[in-house]
Specification:
Structural class: mainly alpha
Helix content: over 70%
Length: about 475
Protein backbone atom coordinates (compact mmCIF):
# COMPACT_ATOMS: atom_id res chain seq x y z
CA UNK A 1 0.00 0.00 0.00
CA UNK A 2 2.95 2.34 0.60
CA UNK A 3 3.81 2.43 -3.11
CA UNK A 4 0.16 3.08 -3.95
CA UNK A 5 -0.04 5.78 -1.28
CA UNK A 6 3.07 7.52 -2.60
CA UNK A 7 1.77 7.49 -6.18
CA UNK A 8 -1.60 8.78 -4.99
CA UNK A 9 0.04 11.59 -3.02
CA UNK A 10 2.28 12.56 -5.94
CA UNK A 11 -0.57 12.59 -8.45
CA UNK A 12 -2.91 14.46 -6.08
CA UNK A 13 -0.23 17.02 -5.24
CA UNK A 14 0.54 17.38 -8.94
CA UNK A 15 -3.05 17.99 -9.93
CA UNK A 16 -3.80 20.25 -6.97
CA UNK A 17 -0.79 22.40 -7.79
CA UNK A 18 -1.89 22.44 -11.41
CA UNK A 19 -5.37 23.42 -10.30
CA UNK A 20 -3.85 26.26 -8.28
CA UNK A 21 -1.96 27.40 -11.39
CA UNK A 22 -5.13 27.10 -13.46
CA UNK A 23 -7.07 29.10 -10.87
CA UNK A 24 -4.72 32.00 -11.50
CA UNK A 25 -6.41 32.62 -14.82
CA UNK A 26 -9.93 33.33 -13.47
CA UNK A 27 -8.54 35.15 -10.42
CA UNK A 28 -6.59 37.51 -12.66
CA UNK A 29 -9.04 37.61 -15.56
CA UNK A 30 -11.83 38.93 -13.31
CA UNK A 31 -9.48 41.83 -12.54
CA UNK A 32 -8.42 42.38 -16.17
CA UNK A 33 -11.82 42.00 -17.87
CA UNK A 34 -15.18 43.45 -16.92
CA UNK A 35 -17.95 41.07 -15.84
CA UNK A 36 -19.56 40.87 -19.31
CA UNK A 37 -16.26 40.05 -21.08
CA UNK A 38 -15.40 37.48 -18.44
CA UNK A 39 -18.82 35.92 -18.98
CA UNK A 40 -18.06 35.74 -22.72
CA UNK A 41 -14.75 33.99 -22.01
CA UNK A 42 -16.55 31.56 -19.70
CA UNK A 43 -19.07 30.82 -22.46
CA UNK A 44 -16.19 29.72 -24.72
CA UNK A 45 -14.67 27.57 -21.97
CA UNK A 46 -17.99 25.89 -21.16
CA UNK A 47 -18.46 24.82 -24.78
CA UNK A 48 -14.78 23.86 -24.99
CA UNK A 49 -15.20 21.56 -22.00
CA UNK A 50 -18.30 19.95 -23.48
CA UNK A 51 -16.77 19.48 -26.94
CA UNK A 52 -13.52 18.00 -25.60
CA UNK A 53 -15.63 15.41 -23.78
CA UNK A 54 -17.58 14.70 -26.98
CA UNK A 55 -14.46 14.34 -29.12
CA UNK A 56 -12.52 12.36 -26.50
CA UNK A 57 -15.24 9.74 -25.88
CA UNK A 58 -13.39 8.39 -22.81
CA UNK A 59 -10.93 6.54 -25.05
CA UNK A 60 -7.81 7.95 -23.38
CA UNK A 61 -8.79 6.93 -19.87
CA UNK A 62 -9.46 3.35 -21.01
CA UNK A 63 -5.68 2.87 -21.12
CA UNK A 64 -5.72 2.60 -17.31
CA UNK A 65 -7.76 -0.59 -17.81
CA UNK A 66 -6.13 -2.13 -20.88
CA UNK A 67 -2.45 -1.51 -20.13
CA UNK A 68 -2.51 -3.26 -16.71
CA UNK A 69 -4.56 -6.10 -18.21
CA UNK A 70 -2.46 -6.50 -21.38
CA UNK A 71 1.02 -5.20 -20.45
CA UNK A 72 2.70 -6.74 -23.50
CA UNK A 73 0.57 -4.78 -25.97
CA UNK A 74 1.12 -1.22 -24.79
CA UNK A 75 2.46 0.13 -28.14
CA UNK A 76 -0.50 -1.37 -29.97
CA UNK A 77 -3.04 0.13 -27.57
CA UNK A 78 -1.57 3.64 -27.49
CA UNK A 79 -1.23 3.69 -31.30
CA UNK A 80 -4.78 2.45 -31.68
CA UNK A 81 -5.88 5.07 -29.14
CA UNK A 82 -4.21 7.84 -31.16
CA UNK A 83 -5.78 6.68 -34.43
CA UNK A 84 -9.27 6.39 -32.94
CA UNK A 85 -9.16 9.89 -31.45
CA UNK A 86 -7.76 11.42 -34.65
CA UNK A 87 -10.49 9.97 -36.86
CA UNK A 88 -13.35 10.46 -34.41
CA UNK A 89 -12.46 14.06 -33.45
CA UNK A 90 -11.97 15.02 -37.11
CA UNK A 91 -15.44 13.72 -37.99
CA UNK A 92 -17.08 15.43 -34.99
CA UNK A 93 -15.47 18.80 -35.64
CA UNK A 94 -16.22 18.67 -39.37
CA UNK A 95 -19.90 18.15 -38.56
CA UNK A 96 -19.70 21.00 -36.04
CA UNK A 97 -18.23 23.43 -38.58
CA UNK A 98 -20.84 22.44 -41.18
CA UNK A 99 -23.58 23.06 -38.58
CA UNK A 100 -22.05 26.42 -37.66
CA UNK A 101 -25.20 28.44 -38.35
CA UNK A 102 -27.26 26.33 -35.96
CA UNK A 103 -24.64 26.77 -33.22
CA UNK A 104 -24.62 30.55 -33.67
CA UNK A 105 -28.33 30.59 -32.94
CA UNK A 106 -27.60 29.69 -29.30
CA UNK A 107 -24.13 31.22 -28.81
CA UNK A 108 -23.90 34.89 -27.89
CA UNK A 109 -21.01 35.50 -30.33
CA UNK A 110 -19.05 33.67 -33.05
CA UNK A 111 -16.18 31.55 -31.68
CA UNK A 112 -16.62 28.48 -33.91
CA UNK A 113 -13.13 28.40 -35.47
CA UNK A 114 -11.09 28.97 -32.27
CA UNK A 115 -13.30 26.43 -30.50
CA UNK A 116 -12.76 23.78 -33.21
CA UNK A 117 -9.00 24.46 -33.22
CA UNK A 118 -8.73 24.26 -29.45
CA UNK A 119 -10.74 21.04 -29.19
CA UNK A 120 -8.82 19.26 -31.96
CA UNK A 121 -5.44 20.15 -30.45
CA UNK A 122 -6.59 19.33 -26.92
CA UNK A 123 -7.98 15.83 -27.49
CA UNK A 124 -5.33 14.47 -29.84
CA UNK A 125 -2.31 12.77 -28.25
CA UNK A 126 -3.83 13.59 -24.88
CA UNK A 127 -3.37 10.06 -23.49
CA UNK A 128 0.17 10.54 -22.20
CA UNK A 129 -0.87 11.12 -18.58
CA UNK A 130 -3.05 7.97 -18.51
CA UNK A 131 -0.20 5.99 -20.07
CA UNK A 132 2.21 7.06 -17.33
CA UNK A 133 -0.39 6.44 -14.60
CA UNK A 134 -0.93 2.89 -15.87
CA UNK A 135 2.86 2.45 -15.92
CA UNK A 136 3.11 3.73 -12.31
CA UNK A 137 5.11 6.80 -13.37
CA UNK A 138 3.19 9.54 -11.60
CA UNK A 139 6.42 11.54 -11.32
CA UNK A 140 6.35 12.09 -15.09
CA UNK A 141 2.70 13.13 -14.87
CA UNK A 142 3.77 15.79 -12.36
CA UNK A 143 6.36 17.33 -14.69
CA UNK A 144 4.29 17.09 -17.86
CA UNK A 145 1.01 18.43 -16.50
CA UNK A 146 2.69 21.30 -14.65
CA UNK A 147 4.62 22.34 -17.74
CA UNK A 148 1.50 22.16 -19.88
CA UNK A 149 -0.55 24.34 -17.54
CA UNK A 150 2.19 26.88 -16.94
CA UNK A 151 2.58 27.28 -20.70
CA UNK A 152 -1.16 27.71 -21.22
CA UNK A 153 -1.76 30.11 -18.33
CA UNK A 154 1.27 32.23 -19.20
CA UNK A 155 0.14 32.67 -22.80
CA UNK A 156 -3.47 33.29 -21.75
CA UNK A 157 -2.71 35.94 -19.13
CA UNK A 158 -0.09 37.69 -21.27
CA UNK A 159 -2.51 38.07 -24.17
CA UNK A 160 -5.35 39.09 -21.83
CA UNK A 161 -3.26 41.77 -20.14
CA UNK A 162 -1.86 43.18 -23.38
CA UNK A 163 -5.01 43.09 -25.54
CA UNK A 164 -8.02 42.88 -23.16
CA UNK A 165 -9.79 41.40 -26.18
CA UNK A 166 -11.89 38.24 -25.71
CA UNK A 167 -11.38 36.97 -29.28
CA UNK A 168 -7.59 37.23 -29.01
CA UNK A 169 -7.71 35.57 -25.58
CA UNK A 170 -9.56 32.49 -26.81
CA UNK A 171 -7.28 32.19 -29.84
CA UNK A 172 -4.29 32.28 -27.45
CA UNK A 173 -5.75 29.30 -25.56
CA UNK A 174 -6.10 27.40 -28.85
CA UNK A 175 -2.54 28.34 -29.82
CA UNK A 176 -1.16 27.02 -26.52
CA UNK A 177 -2.79 23.62 -27.14
CA UNK A 178 -1.46 23.54 -30.71
CA UNK A 179 2.05 24.06 -29.34
CA UNK A 180 1.50 21.27 -26.77
CA UNK A 181 0.31 18.88 -29.51
CA UNK A 182 3.41 19.56 -31.63
CA UNK A 183 5.80 18.95 -28.72
CA UNK A 184 4.08 15.70 -27.69
CA UNK A 185 4.14 14.39 -31.28
CA UNK A 186 7.89 14.98 -31.43
CA UNK A 187 8.38 13.20 -28.09
CA UNK A 188 6.34 10.14 -29.11
CA UNK A 189 8.22 9.76 -32.37
CA UNK A 190 11.58 9.96 -30.60
CA UNK A 191 10.43 7.53 -27.87
CA UNK A 192 9.21 5.05 -30.50
CA UNK A 193 5.89 4.56 -28.68
CA UNK A 194 3.78 4.37 -31.82
CA UNK A 195 3.30 1.50 -34.26
CA UNK A 196 1.13 0.75 -37.30
CA UNK A 197 0.03 -2.61 -35.88
CA UNK A 198 -3.68 -2.01 -35.24
CA UNK A 199 -6.09 -4.93 -34.80
CA UNK A 200 -9.83 -4.61 -35.60
CA UNK A 201 -10.54 -6.99 -32.69
CA UNK A 202 -8.65 -4.73 -30.28
CA UNK A 203 -10.44 -1.68 -31.65
CA UNK A 204 -13.83 -3.28 -31.00
CA UNK A 205 -12.72 -4.34 -27.52
CA UNK A 206 -11.51 -0.85 -26.62
CA UNK A 207 -14.60 0.84 -28.02
CA UNK A 208 -16.92 -1.52 -26.14
CA UNK A 209 -15.22 -0.47 -22.92
CA UNK A 210 -14.56 3.20 -23.69
CA UNK A 211 -17.71 4.27 -25.56
CA UNK A 212 -20.14 3.88 -22.62
CA UNK A 213 -17.65 5.62 -20.31
CA UNK A 214 -17.20 8.44 -22.83
CA UNK A 215 -20.91 8.88 -23.48
CA UNK A 216 -21.63 8.80 -19.74
CA UNK A 217 -18.83 11.32 -19.20
CA UNK A 218 -20.36 13.52 -21.89
CA UNK A 219 -23.74 13.39 -20.17
CA UNK A 220 -22.11 14.11 -16.79
CA UNK A 221 -20.22 17.03 -18.31
CA UNK A 222 -23.39 18.28 -19.88
CA UNK A 223 -25.22 17.87 -16.59
CA UNK A 224 -22.51 19.90 -14.82
CA UNK A 225 -22.62 22.68 -17.42
CA UNK A 226 -26.29 22.74 -18.35
CA UNK A 227 -27.02 24.93 -15.36
CA UNK A 228 -24.47 27.47 -16.63
CA UNK A 229 -25.91 27.38 -20.13
CA UNK A 230 -29.43 27.73 -18.73
CA UNK A 231 -28.46 30.71 -16.55
CA UNK A 232 -26.50 32.30 -19.41
CA UNK A 233 -29.35 31.98 -21.90
CA UNK A 234 -32.04 33.20 -19.47
CA UNK A 235 -30.21 35.87 -17.46
CA UNK A 236 -27.23 36.79 -19.67
CA UNK A 237 -23.42 36.87 -19.29
CA UNK A 238 -23.33 38.72 -15.95
CA UNK A 239 -25.40 36.05 -14.19
CA UNK A 240 -23.35 33.40 -15.97
CA UNK A 241 -20.16 34.93 -14.55
CA UNK A 242 -21.62 34.67 -11.02
CA UNK A 243 -22.71 31.09 -11.59
CA UNK A 244 -19.37 30.08 -13.13
CA UNK A 245 -17.46 31.48 -10.15
CA UNK A 246 -19.75 29.62 -7.75
CA UNK A 247 -19.13 26.31 -9.50
CA UNK A 248 -15.32 26.46 -9.33
CA UNK A 249 -15.46 23.98 -6.45
CA UNK A 250 -16.38 21.23 -8.96
CA UNK A 251 -12.99 20.99 -10.71
CA UNK A 252 -11.21 21.05 -7.34
CA UNK A 253 -13.16 17.98 -6.25
CA UNK A 254 -12.53 16.26 -9.58
CA UNK A 255 -8.81 16.87 -9.15
CA UNK A 256 -8.65 15.12 -5.77
CA UNK A 257 -11.08 12.33 -6.58
CA UNK A 258 -9.68 11.74 -10.06
CA UNK A 259 -6.06 11.60 -8.88
CA UNK A 260 -6.69 8.90 -6.29
CA UNK A 261 -9.13 6.97 -8.49
CA UNK A 262 -6.73 6.99 -11.45
CA UNK A 263 -3.99 5.47 -9.29
CA UNK A 264 -6.24 2.95 -7.51
CA UNK A 265 -8.21 1.70 -10.54
CA UNK A 266 -5.28 0.02 -12.37
CA UNK A 267 -4.34 -1.75 -9.12
CA UNK A 268 -7.92 -2.97 -8.73
CA UNK A 269 -7.77 -4.31 -12.30
CA UNK A 270 -4.50 -6.11 -11.51
CA UNK A 271 -6.22 -7.82 -8.54
CA UNK A 272 -9.22 -8.90 -10.65
CA UNK A 273 -8.89 -12.50 -9.42
CA UNK A 274 -9.27 -11.34 -5.79
CA UNK A 275 -12.69 -9.69 -5.44
CA UNK A 276 -12.24 -9.12 -1.69
CA UNK A 277 -8.88 -7.42 -2.24
CA UNK A 278 -10.35 -5.09 -4.87
CA UNK A 279 -13.28 -4.23 -2.57
CA UNK A 280 -11.02 -3.49 0.39
CA UNK A 281 -8.79 -1.30 -1.79
CA UNK A 282 -11.87 0.60 -2.94
CA UNK A 283 -13.12 1.03 0.65
CA UNK A 284 -9.78 2.42 1.77
CA UNK A 285 -9.78 4.87 -1.13
CA UNK A 286 -13.23 6.04 0.02
CA UNK A 287 -11.87 6.77 3.49
CA UNK A 288 -9.01 8.74 1.91
CA UNK A 289 -11.58 10.75 -0.06
CA UNK A 290 -13.46 11.44 3.16
CA UNK A 291 -10.55 12.72 5.21
CA UNK A 292 -9.36 14.82 2.27
CA UNK A 293 -12.80 16.29 1.38
CA UNK A 294 -14.77 16.49 4.64
CA UNK A 295 -12.54 19.24 6.18
CA UNK A 296 -12.64 21.47 3.04
CA UNK A 297 -16.43 21.07 3.00
CA UNK A 298 -16.72 22.38 6.56
CA UNK A 299 -14.19 25.18 6.04
CA UNK A 300 -15.54 26.44 2.72
CA UNK A 301 -19.11 26.33 4.03
CA UNK A 302 -18.12 28.38 7.07
CA UNK A 303 -15.93 30.85 5.16
CA UNK A 304 -17.89 30.90 1.87
CA UNK A 305 -18.42 34.65 1.75
CA UNK A 306 -14.82 35.45 2.69
CA UNK A 307 -13.51 32.90 0.16
CA UNK A 308 -15.55 34.21 -2.81
CA UNK A 309 -15.09 37.92 -2.17
CA UNK A 310 -11.36 37.59 -1.45
CA UNK A 311 -10.58 35.55 -4.54
CA UNK A 312 -13.05 37.07 -6.99
CA UNK A 313 -13.63 40.58 -5.54
CA UNK A 314 -16.77 42.10 -4.00
CA UNK A 315 -18.48 42.18 -7.41
CA UNK A 316 -19.04 38.44 -7.14
CA UNK A 317 -20.78 38.41 -3.73
CA UNK A 318 -24.07 37.26 -5.39
CA UNK A 319 -22.30 33.98 -6.20
CA UNK A 320 -21.95 32.99 -2.50
CA UNK A 321 -25.31 31.15 -2.04
CA UNK A 322 -24.75 29.11 -5.22
CA UNK A 323 -21.20 28.33 -4.09
CA UNK A 324 -22.49 26.98 -0.76
CA UNK A 325 -24.92 24.66 -2.56
CA UNK A 326 -22.18 23.32 -4.82
CA UNK A 327 -20.04 22.49 -1.78
CA UNK A 328 -22.30 19.48 -1.18
CA UNK A 329 -20.58 17.94 -4.19
CA UNK A 330 -17.52 17.37 -2.00
CA UNK A 331 -19.53 14.92 0.10
CA UNK A 332 -21.15 13.23 -2.88
CA UNK A 333 -17.79 12.60 -4.57
CA UNK A 334 -16.42 10.67 -1.60
CA UNK A 335 -18.35 7.68 -2.99
CA UNK A 336 -17.72 6.39 -6.50
CA UNK A 337 -19.31 2.97 -6.82
CA UNK A 338 -19.00 2.85 -10.60
CA UNK A 339 -15.27 2.13 -10.11
CA UNK A 340 -16.02 -1.31 -8.64
CA UNK A 341 -18.20 -2.27 -11.59
CA UNK A 342 -15.64 -1.08 -14.15
CA UNK A 343 -13.03 -3.46 -12.72
CA UNK A 344 -15.24 -6.26 -14.06
CA UNK A 345 -14.91 -4.80 -17.57
CA UNK A 346 -18.51 -3.51 -17.44
CA UNK A 347 -19.30 0.04 -18.47
CA UNK A 348 -22.73 -0.05 -20.14
CA UNK A 349 -24.47 0.63 -16.81
CA UNK A 350 -23.01 4.15 -16.83
CA UNK A 351 -25.19 5.16 -19.78
CA UNK A 352 -28.49 4.26 -18.14
CA UNK A 353 -27.46 5.77 -14.80
CA UNK A 354 -26.15 9.02 -16.22
CA UNK A 355 -29.12 9.35 -18.56
CA UNK A 356 -31.48 9.08 -15.58
CA UNK A 357 -29.42 11.68 -13.73
CA UNK A 358 -29.51 14.16 -16.64
CA UNK A 359 -33.29 13.81 -17.01
CA UNK A 360 -33.79 14.47 -13.30
CA UNK A 361 -31.40 17.43 -13.42
CA UNK A 362 -33.29 19.04 -16.31
CA UNK A 363 -36.70 18.48 -14.74
CA UNK A 364 -35.68 19.84 -11.34
CA UNK A 365 -33.82 22.77 -12.88
CA UNK A 366 -36.90 24.12 -14.63
CA UNK A 367 -39.04 23.75 -11.51
CA UNK A 368 -36.55 24.98 -8.92
CA UNK A 369 -35.37 27.97 -10.99
CA UNK A 370 -38.92 29.40 -10.89
CA UNK A 371 -39.08 28.97 -7.11
CA UNK A 372 -35.52 29.66 -5.98
CA UNK A 373 -33.87 31.67 -8.74
CA UNK A 374 -30.11 31.35 -9.25
CA UNK A 375 -29.59 28.60 -6.66
CA UNK A 376 -32.26 26.38 -8.27
CA UNK A 377 -30.03 24.86 -11.00
CA UNK A 378 -27.32 24.13 -8.40
CA UNK A 379 -29.77 22.26 -6.14
CA UNK A 380 -31.09 20.36 -9.17
CA UNK A 381 -27.58 19.21 -10.12
CA UNK A 382 -26.65 18.04 -6.61
CA UNK A 383 -29.95 16.14 -6.26
CA UNK A 384 -29.41 14.38 -9.59
CA UNK A 385 -25.87 13.40 -8.59
CA UNK A 386 -27.09 11.82 -5.34
CA UNK A 387 -29.68 9.82 -7.29
CA UNK A 388 -26.95 8.60 -9.66
CA UNK A 389 -24.80 7.29 -6.82
CA UNK A 390 -27.76 5.50 -5.24
CA UNK A 391 -28.42 3.79 -8.57
CA UNK A 392 -24.79 2.64 -8.79
CA UNK A 393 -24.98 1.36 -5.20
CA UNK A 394 -27.92 -0.89 -6.14
CA UNK A 395 -25.97 -2.31 -9.08
CA UNK A 396 -22.87 -2.95 -6.96
CA UNK A 397 -24.95 -4.78 -4.34
CA UNK A 398 -26.33 -7.07 -7.04
CA UNK A 399 -22.98 -7.64 -8.75
CA UNK A 400 -20.97 -8.39 -5.60
CA UNK A 401 -23.75 -9.81 -3.41
CA UNK A 402 -23.05 -7.38 -0.60
CA UNK A 403 -25.29 -5.68 1.92
CA UNK A 404 -25.23 -1.93 2.53
CA UNK A 405 -23.42 -2.53 5.82
CA UNK A 406 -20.53 -4.47 4.26
CA UNK A 407 -20.26 -2.50 1.02
CA UNK A 408 -19.01 0.71 2.64
CA UNK A 409 -16.63 1.14 5.58
CA UNK A 410 -19.17 3.05 7.66
CA UNK A 411 -17.05 2.96 10.82
CA UNK A 412 -14.18 4.69 9.06
CA UNK A 413 -16.50 7.34 7.61
CA UNK A 414 -18.09 8.07 10.99
CA UNK A 415 -14.62 8.41 12.53
CA UNK A 416 -13.65 11.02 9.93
CA UNK A 417 -16.96 12.80 10.53
CA UNK A 418 -16.38 12.77 14.28
CA UNK A 419 -13.00 14.39 13.74
CA UNK A 420 -14.61 17.25 11.79
CA UNK A 421 -17.30 17.70 14.45
CA UNK A 422 -14.59 17.99 17.10
CA UNK A 423 -12.95 20.85 15.23
CA UNK A 424 -16.04 22.91 14.37
CA UNK A 425 -16.26 24.82 17.72
CA UNK A 426 -12.78 26.18 17.04
CA UNK A 427 -14.06 28.01 13.93
CA UNK A 428 -16.75 29.84 15.88
CA UNK A 429 -14.30 30.75 18.64
CA UNK A 430 -11.87 32.14 16.03
CA UNK A 431 -14.67 34.34 14.62
CA UNK A 432 -14.83 36.21 17.93
CA UNK A 433 -11.10 36.95 18.14
CA UNK A 434 -9.63 40.34 17.15
CA UNK A 435 -7.41 40.81 14.13
CA UNK A 436 -7.68 40.70 10.31
CA UNK A 437 -10.45 38.35 9.20
CA UNK A 438 -8.36 36.65 6.53
CA UNK A 439 -5.48 35.93 8.93
CA UNK A 440 -7.88 34.55 11.56
CA UNK A 441 -9.53 32.32 8.97
CA UNK A 442 -6.18 30.97 7.73
CA UNK A 443 -4.93 30.10 11.23
CA UNK A 444 -8.28 28.63 12.28
CA UNK A 445 -8.43 26.51 9.10
CA UNK A 446 -5.02 24.98 9.70
CA UNK A 447 -5.90 24.27 13.32
CA UNK A 448 -9.24 22.76 12.28
CA UNK A 449 -7.62 20.35 9.82
CA UNK A 450 -5.02 19.35 12.41
CA UNK A 451 -7.68 18.66 15.07
CA UNK A 452 -10.05 16.80 12.74
CA UNK A 453 -7.26 14.58 11.39
CA UNK A 454 -5.80 13.96 14.85
CA UNK A 455 -9.17 12.92 16.30
CA UNK A 456 -9.93 10.68 13.31
CA UNK A 457 -6.47 9.11 13.55
CA UNK A 458 -6.89 8.44 17.27
CA UNK A 459 -10.25 6.85 16.53
CA UNK A 460 -8.59 4.40 14.12
CA UNK A 461 -8.27 6.00 10.66
CA UNK A 462 -4.70 4.79 10.23
CA UNK A 463 -4.28 5.95 6.62
CA UNK A 464 -4.10 9.52 7.92
CA UNK A 465 -0.93 8.57 9.76
CA UNK A 466 0.50 6.93 6.64
CA UNK A 467 -0.28 10.01 4.57
CA UNK A 468 1.26 12.40 7.11
CA UNK A 469 4.36 10.20 7.50
CA UNK A 470 4.84 10.07 3.74
CA UNK A 471 4.40 13.84 3.44
CA UNK A 472 6.93 14.39 6.24
CA UNK A 473 9.42 12.10 4.50
CA UNK A 474 9.04 14.10 1.28
CA UNK A 475 9.55 17.39 3.13
CA UNK A 476 12.56 15.90 4.89
CA UNK A 477 14.26 15.20 1.57
CA UNK A 478 14.21 18.89 0.76
CA UNK A 479 15.12 20.12 4.23
CA UNK A 480 18.86 20.59 4.74
CA UNK A 481 20.38 18.89 7.77
CA UNK A 482 21.60 21.20 10.50
Amino acid sequence: MSGLMSRGVILTASRLSNFAILMLSPLLLVRILDVADYGAYQEFMIYATVFTTICGLGIDSSLTYFLPRYPNQEREYVSQNSALILVYSSVCLTVFIIARKAFLEIASYDFVLPLATYVFCFVNLNWLEYFWIAKRRTDLVLYYSAGRLILRVTILLTVAYVTRDVEKIIWSVAGAEALRLSLVAIYLLKANLLTVSISPARIRQQLRFAAPVGLAGLMQQGSRNIGKLFVGSVLGPVALAYYAVASYVLPMVLVIRGSIADVVFPEMVRTKSNAHGALRLWQRSNIVFCFLLFPPFVLLTHYAELFVTTLFTEEYRPAVPVFQIYLLWLIRRCFNMDTLLRTRGKTGFMLSGTGLSVIMNLALMVVLYKWLGLIGPAIAYISAEVLLELYYAILVKREFGLSVGTLVDWKGIWRVGAGCLAGIPLLFVADQLPGPELARAAVASLAFVAISWLVAYRLGVTDIGRLVSYARSIVGKFTPLK
